[in-house]
Design brief:
Elements (H helix, E strand, L loop, with lengths): L2 H20 L13 E7 L5 E7 L4 H13 L1 H11 L7 E6 L2 H16 L1
Parallel strand pairs: 2-3
Antiparallel strand pairs: 1-2
Helix pairs in contact: 1-3
Length: 115
């Protein structure tokens, strides 16, 4: 698969996962409503996808949400497989992405230096 098709497929998977989360495909009440899919790394053979999850909430909430998403990855993978026009549906692995919190911390430090 060429680079353009790979990026298009990654974007499509992010969109599908985000839509499923908004629609309430995972019914666990511990899943944060403030999580977002910040990125994805798709294997060249489409067998595996590492999905990065972020939130501005605390670390424990993010870890709990990632655990819930990994436990429900089969449901999400099944639903994604119905929408993708590929031969194989990638196996999903959700990992936490703390870049939002790190960016907020850096911005606070910069603001503190200004004052």
């Amino acid at each position: 698969m060429n680079e353009v098709s790979m990026r298009r497929t990654e974007s499509h998977i992010i969109e599908l996962i985000s839509t499923l989360l908004v629609q309430g495909a995972i019914k666990d009440p511990r899943l944060s409503k403030f999580i977002s899919i910040s990125g994805i790394k798709l294997a060249k053979d489409l067998s595996f996808a590492k999905v990065f999850v972020s939130t501005f909430e605390d670390e424990k909430t993010l870890e709990t949400s990632v655990m819930i998403l990994n436990n429900a990855s089969g449901v999400l993978q099944s639903r994604i497989g119905k929408s993708l026009k590929t031969r194989h549906t990638p196996k999903l692995l959700f990992v936490k992405d703390v870049s939002i919190r790190e960016a907020i911390a850096v911005n606070r430090k910069i603001e503190d230096l200004k004052n």
